[in-house]
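Hey Z.,

So I finally got round to the adenosine-5'-diphosphate thing we talked about over coffee. Here's the setup:
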Amino acid sequence: MDHHSIIEDAKAQVYDFHSSDSTGHDYWHVMRVYNNARMIQSQEGGDRFIIEVAALFHDMIDYKLTDDEHAQLDGIKAFLSRRGVGADVIERITHAMQAVSFKGGNNTVAVESVEDAIVQDADRLDALGAVGIARTFIYGGNKRHELYHPDRAAREDLTFEQYSQEDNTMINHFYEKLLRLKNLMHTDTARSVAEERHRFMEMYLEQFYQEWEGKR
Ligand code: ADP
Ligand code: NI
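And the result:
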């Protein structure tokens, strides 16, 4: 089967899988990651087909969205194999999917190839900027987190681990994660987009605090 048809089939599969999501992992998140990944690939190289398929399927094995990551992976391997994709390419696709959520802890599949790096950068970009702010509030609303609390205001000196133990407000999530992401990008292309989205988030926070205190 040609690559174009496989990508179209993959989009249909992903649409079905994500149709009932309310945690910020909906189909449109996946499509934005896919588009980010294509944009980064056009500048940085890497195997376009592997990057596109891995981006489309990346959240189907997220532990938050499935009880059985291994069954999901097997399903994706079978999907690709039925369409004539070779075992080595399938291996590189699943590696990139698993490396997306590598945090140095529970997930042991680290970023090793340019394809892994691009898919992870593409996913991280979607946590930034105007869309990233909206996703943070969707996620926090879904978990019934408080928007902001002045006594539990963010401290940039805390480590990621220390943060997770703090009372988590939605605004604190910016300091816990979002404002750190630009320094974690692998590719120059993603880093330059991240820097622009980072500045937007800093402006947003500045306005937020001013409004909170009735100064603007
Ligand atoms: P990913 O899409 O990389 O798997 P996550 O599953 O960690 O990201 O989070 C999905 C979205 O929800 C992201 O935009 C993220 O910033 C946001 N989010 C995750 N944890 C929190 C939190 N504790 N408070 C607010 N937003 C969060
Ligand atoms: Ni994602």
